[in-house]
Design goal:
The chain is of the alpha/beta class. It is built from six helices and 17 strands. It has two domains: about 250 residues, 3-Layer(aba) Sandwich (QueA-like); about 80 residues, Beta Barrel (Thrombin, subunit H), CATH 2.40.10. The strands form three sheets. It has a nine-stranded mixed β-sheet. The protein has a six-stranded antiparallel beta barrel with strand order 5-6-7-10-9-8. A two-stranded parallel ribbon has the order 4-11. A hairpin with a 4-residue loop joins strand 8 and strand 9.
Length: about 350
């Protein structure tokens, strides 16, 4: 296919809505695992707890340790008690955030709101062109601590069931708070499984990429190359760079756990021409035709039709292989999206 003429519709696939996973599997690593060989297109089926069978001593798994902020809060207008909902998007400075709010008509400049029975209050400082607001928050102690106590997880719009345990939308290795959505490929791991992998000689290395809500924004342009990606903050620490380079030198594979880890590694490689410690913002857009420089394998969930994520998977696994794998996943009744099953591309 002509990569210069890729259309959004090329990445459409039909699937029944009942395949959208509304709740996570218990235990975490009992989800299904599709294995896709990107050289041959061969597909096999397993369970995530058997991931070790597809890894070799000396391989490195690169995980995203970003932690989801419980950024959805419900409150009331200070003056009359009318309902308001805030979704914190991006920190601009200390206790000042860009937010989405509804109903927006209540959130004029200077209006104050209270949340959590007065634990938290906020004032609207500015209304942006796109309708988002800039709000300043006031509370005793740390804003993050208060959000942990009163905030709800900003689950994707396709998940309609209430999440009983907030930690199930966090990876077991999450550390750095700042994401608006979970790096969902990592949700399958348990601490015991990670320990077992380490005991088998498989390295676990961390990067941080704070996932923005742009990850759920649909591609609007018909021509794929015309789409503009949102920007996200990343950190690749020195220790991770050292592990990755040692892995490559010894003939091991670098396997990204999730598209966010992939985008971090490829962003650094594209910027520096090698893997080294780095941090910054990336708006890298990976779709068929992209030449990978950092990763040798990818663990990922099954993504929305026509999304930038299925485009990234197609770039790595090959377009025909990817669309065939998705067709197979539908036929085999895999569970889709954030709480769904996993795929390993080798």
């Amino acid at each position: 296919m002509d990569i210069n003429d890729l259309k959004k519709s090329d990445f459409y696939y039909d699937f029944p809505e009942e395949l959208i996973a509304q709740t996570p599997v218990e235990p975490r690593n009992h989800s299904r695992l599709m294995i896709l060989d990107r050289k041959t297109g061969e597909i096999s089926h397993d369970r995530f707890y058997n991931l070790c069978n597809y890894l070799q001593k000396g391989d490195t798994l690169v995980v995203n340790d970003s932690r989801v902020l419980p950024a959805r809060i419900y409150g009331e207008r200070e003056s009359n008690g009318s309902f308001i909902e805030f979704l914190l998007l991006e920190q601009r400075r200390q206790n000042v955030w860009e937010i989405l709010c509804r109903p927006g008509k209540k959130a004029k400049v200077g209006t104050r709101f209270v949340f959590g029975n007065g634990r938290l209050s906020a004032e609207i400082l500015e209304v942006l062109e796109d309708g988002n607001r800039i709000a300043k928050f006031f509370c005793e102690g740390s804003l993050f601590t208060v959000l942990d106590e009163i905030g709800q997880m900003p689950l994707p719009p396709y998940i309609t069931k209430k999440l009983e345990n907030k930690e199930r939308y966090q990876t077991v290795y999450s550390r750095e708070t700042g994401s608006a959505a979970a790096p969902t490929a990592g949700l399958h791991f348990t601490l015991e499984q990670l320990d077992d992998l380490k005991n088998r000689g498989i390295n676990i290395a961390s990067v941080t990429l704070h996932v923005g809500l742009g990850t759920f924004r649909p591609v609007k342009e018909d021509r794929v190359a015309d789409h503009k990606m949102h920007s996200e903050f990343y950190v690749l620490p020195p220790k991770t760079a050292e592990i990755i380079n040692r892995t490559k030198e010894s003939g091991g594979r670098v396997i990204a756990v999730g598209t966010t880890s992939c985008r971090t590694l490829e962003s650094v490689f594209k910027k520096l021409g090698k893997i080294d410690a780095d941090e910054g913002s990336t708006d890298i857009f990976i779709y068929p035709g992209y030449k990978f420089g950092a990763i040798d394998g990818l663990i990922t969930n099954f993504h929305l039709p026509e999304s930038t994520l299925i485009m990234l998977v197609s770039a790595f696994a090959g377009y025909e292989n990817t669309m065939n794998a998705y067709k197979t996943a539908v036929e085999e009744r895999y569970r889709f999206f954030s709480f769904g099953d996993a795929m390993m591309i080798k």
